[in-house]
Design goal:
single chain, mainly alpha
Amino acid sequence: MSSLLGLLLLAQSGFAQSSDDVFGVISKFSGDLYTLGELTGGSEAEWTQLEQSSADKLKLALAGMDQDADLLNAKGRTPLHEASALGFGHLVEVMLQDDRLLALLDRQDQDSLTAFEHALLAMKENLLACHPRAENPFVLVPYYVTLPYYEVRQPYPKVQALLQSAGAKTGSDTAKEVWAAWCTQDDEDARAQVSDAVNLYATLKEISQNERDAALLAEIEKQADLYRELVQNLSGASRPSAEEVKLFIDQLYRDKGFEPPDE
């Protein structure tokens, strides 16, 4: 399993930390975000409430943290790594006010990635750019359940801006190398786009959106084929006209935000 894919599994299962410590606050927010997504899909008001609550808990955790506390997990990641990788800008903002974490701003984890580079890769938003045919439900379900949060809130650019303002190094070469080594994306054009990207985050976001669109179009086409097959088995007055069939199929595309194909 790639380290990038493993990060998503780790975020869903928790970091094996108490919910009262810094890593635990990150894990708790990740879990709450998933639960909210399952229950209601999430809304601006609900997300804001969760963010405020977790930011308050993080401030308490930092205030109660020993000066010599271990700020690295088993992957060699700091809380800044984890929060940045997950796009939790409200937590990154709090962390950057703590001198102990600020001193670790450009620290590399075991994959040689900094917090800023994790924010560029933005795996919680750009998973499909890396693994377009991922089938692991423990990865895909949390990805789609929490995707509305990332699409609406757009947290990764905020994380990148916060880290850059704090003085983080902003290169993307190592992030590109790690992505190329670990990702299962086999489209050579997509890989070339990543290699040549000036804005790595924007490039990965575009590729991921293209992969989602392609998967959705394939599903619509499958539904259209099933409908055509059903129509073929009907006879007499119960069989829709060719125009009615076209209108029905065209609506399948429009309902998902696509223009119907010309026939």
